[in-house]
Design a protein that fits this description.
CATH superfamily of one domain in chain A: Aromatic compound dioxygenase
Helix content of chain A: 10-25%
Structural class of chain A: alpha/beta
Number of strands of chain A: 12
Largest interface: A-B, 77 and 76 residues
Radius of gyration of chain A: 23 Å
Oligomer: homodimer
CATH topology of one domain in chain A: Protocatechuate 3,4-Dioxygenase, subunit A
Shape of chain A: globular
Largest sheet of chain A: 5 strands, mixed
CATH architecture of one domain in chain A: Sandwich
Order of helices and strands of chain A: HHHHHEEEEEHEEEEEEE
Distance between the termini of chain A: 48 Å
Number of helices of chain A: 6
CATH class of one domain in chain A: Mainly Beta
């Protein structure tokens, strides 16, 4: 193989692109980019990517970028639907047995949700869905309750939409942060989440449609728990009755994260005031890994 | 390895993502996406991509998309600077000995340049640079002159900018299409191109800076030639005196594409009217491959 400076054959081009990063001062960045060159070039060769396909890929990425707004992150959707988000998560966050497993953060998390008192509700709009009481305790893997843990929750409404997607909802509807006391316990009212489609009117939706995939995710409540001295966990509570537990469009379901939304009649003790239908309760502890583990 | 539906380990996640495309009706698209999953997942594992690095990558791609406009294509720049554009070109367009080699199209080509008469000039603004006369013949590899070939040319001005980047230039400055007659000959006036930086005020420029790479390309004139019955070739004529022939930021230089801009004094025959300085001439034939080769 000839060396640079005039790469002509595929091997020479790959070697030249790799070598162009030899002088990168940051070792990790150099490694990331040289490996990226190797893997992307290997892909292009192995599939024999044509000029038209290359143009289609450039167009797809450009459209994906154009679809991103302050409240929509199409590249996260792309990463999610290619299984990359779950893979990064799996590599980064192996947890010891008994600890709460993580899953995708998803594109709908909003920083700075309101701090709400325990036993209050995240519901700020009537018609958001069937009431659900969520309770549990934040514990460490060593067994102790965690005081001062922030339990950040967000989810969709009965119309499938998160507040951040839906101008018809108050911006803080169905989201909130709850801070545990000395007993580590949390409790809040919300609604039962529903199965929903990831936003499928953009390039990722087109990719799914073109490949015979559907955009559905199983109903879930997002929970992110952080506490001093512990690793933060971003996870879901999946509804055990969802029809899409087995074919989540973003591969996020883990058996340990599936919970029962236990139905209760309006006459049962604890029923929300003024609600005449079925309501639900979910109980699930969150078990954190000490930061030094 | 367990099968879906609940992938938890990295291997299971990759298998699930791959399998999700099993039902894609288009075989080629299925192959492209399943190989993409394999290669991207292999990359993420091999480098041990962290959550922060994943976030940085999502941010980088989003910024790259936001930088694209009607006249700026940051994803093509990204492909160019990673050597992918030249690799796709090398895989797609191997040409027989004697035929004109191709190189990157680049992000500055504009469809629909004006058809100009032979021997006219593409210069629409004074001060665009030192005059250069470009002549040659379009031939087939079999040796015959090609009649009716469209010679589409574009290049930068003395200020390093292409008209499409520079509101100070008329939009069709330094670009045009010339149609060959029965002799296959072409001839037009332009200016001597200059070394220039690819647009480096966006994410790709940041990537180059962070990795110790420069954004310079060697001076060149773009030529794309198409003719009925022949394969279209998109190529450059590189100035043999450029300081960046050996370190083109996009790996586009091929030895066969380097030409001499021969200097001439204002007193020499053929000098452009009203020009009192040095002018140049370049002679280079374009040899096309029959479409059925």
């Amino acid at each position: 193989m000839r060396e640079e400076p005039h790469p002509v054959t595929p091997d020479e081009i790959t070697a030249a692109a790799r070598k162009s990063f030899d002088g990168a001062p940051d070792r990790r960045l150099r490694f990331l980019l040289q490996q990226l060159v190797d893997h992307l070039h290997a892909y292009v060769r192995e599939v024999g990517l044509t000029r038209d396909e290359w143009e289609a890929a450039v167009g797809f990425l450009t459209d994906t970028g154009r679809t991103c707004t302050g409240s929509r992150q199409e590249f996260i959707l792309l990463s999610d639907t290619l299984g990359l988000s779950m893979l990064v998560d799996a590599l980064q966050h192996p947890v010891p047995p008994g600890a709460t497993e993580s899953t995708v953060l998803g594109p709908f998390h909003v920083e700075g949700s309101p701090l709400r008192p325990m036993w209050s509700s995240t519901v700020e709009k009537e018609g958001s869905g069937e009431p659900a009481l969520v309770t549990g305790t934040v514990r460490g893997t060593e067994g102790r309750p965690v005081e001062g843990a922030l339990v950040d929750v967000w989810q969709n409404a009965a119309n499938q939409l998160y507040a951040v997607q839906d101008p018809g909802q108050p911006p803080e509807n169905l989201r909130g942060v709850f801070k545990t006391g000395a007993d580590g316990a949390f409790a809040f009212w919300s609604v039962r989440p529903v199965d929903y489609r990831i936003p499928d009117d953009g390039p990722v939706g087109k990719m799914l449609a073109a490949t015979g995939r559907h955009p559905w995710r199983p109903a879930h409540l997002h929970v992110m728990v952080s506490a001093p001295g512990y690793r933060t966990v971003a996870t879901h509570l999946f509804d055990a009755t969802s029809a899409h537990l087995d074919d989540d469009a973003v591969f996020g379901v883990k058996p340990s994260l599936v919970v029962d939304f236990v139905p209760h009649g309006p006459e049962e003790p604890g029923a929300p005031e003024g609600w005449n239908g079925t309501w639900y309760s979910v109980e699930r502890d969150v078990v954190l890994v000490p930061a030094d583990d």
